[in-house]
């Protein structure tokens, strides 16, 4: 199912969406924490972005497994990629929580003065963790795809 589109592997196409949307979501969550006034205007957009990228991660991992059958085992990249969903889900949850608290939907939580601070701290931690993990996945993927070609040319100079 997650193999090719017009004869090209789908994995690099989906991965580029994840590589763009996850950092955008991270920056959006951080912006909502730093500027709570932006939650009303941009909160739903950030939460929607978090949802889309969270849904795309399993597509990226499944398509990566299909690609692995053709090009070989990417080693650490596959393991790190499989873990990325566990960093995106907390980011999604905290993005939604920031929006819900801001809109007063969760009145019991919103009335507690410390609740907003706790959600903000957890959101920052989730954003930093997701940022580190997406970097690790991307760096290991670049090494798996290009390490021999680029590294080999640099050594021959």
TrEMBL record:
Coiled-coil features, chain-numbered ranges: none
UniProt KW Membrane keyword: yes
Assigned keywords, A-Z: Membrane, Transmembrane, Transmembrane helix
Keyword Membrane on entry: yes
Pfam family, one: DUF2231
Membrane spanning residue stretches: 13-35, 42-64, 84-101, 113-135
Family matches, as InterPro entries: DUF2231_TM (IPR019251)
Domain DUF2231, residue spans: 7-152
Listed name of the protein: DUF2231 domain-containing protein
Source lineage: Bacteria, Bacillati, Actinomycetota, Actinomycetes, Propionibacteriales
């Amino acid at each position: 199912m997650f193999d090719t589109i017009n004869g090209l592997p789908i994995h690099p196409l989906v991965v580029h969406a994840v590589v763009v949307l996850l950092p955008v979501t991270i920056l959006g969550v951080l912006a909502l924490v730093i500027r709570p006034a932006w939650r009303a205007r941009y909160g739903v957009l950030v939460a929607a972005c978090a949802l889309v990228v969270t849904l795309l991660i399993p597509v990226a991992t499944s398509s990566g497994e299909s690609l692995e059958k053709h090009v070989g085992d990417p080693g650490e990249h596959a393991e790190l990629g499989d873990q990325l969903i566990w960093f995106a889900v907390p980011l999604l949850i905290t993005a939604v929580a920031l929006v819900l608290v801001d809109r007063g939907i969760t009145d019991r939580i919103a009335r507690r003065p410390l609740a907003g601070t706790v959600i903000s701290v957890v959101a920052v931690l989730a954003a930093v963790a997701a940022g580190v993990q997406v970097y690790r996945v991307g760096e290991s993927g670049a090494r798996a795809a290009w390490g021999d070609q680029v590294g080999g040319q640099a050594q021959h100079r």
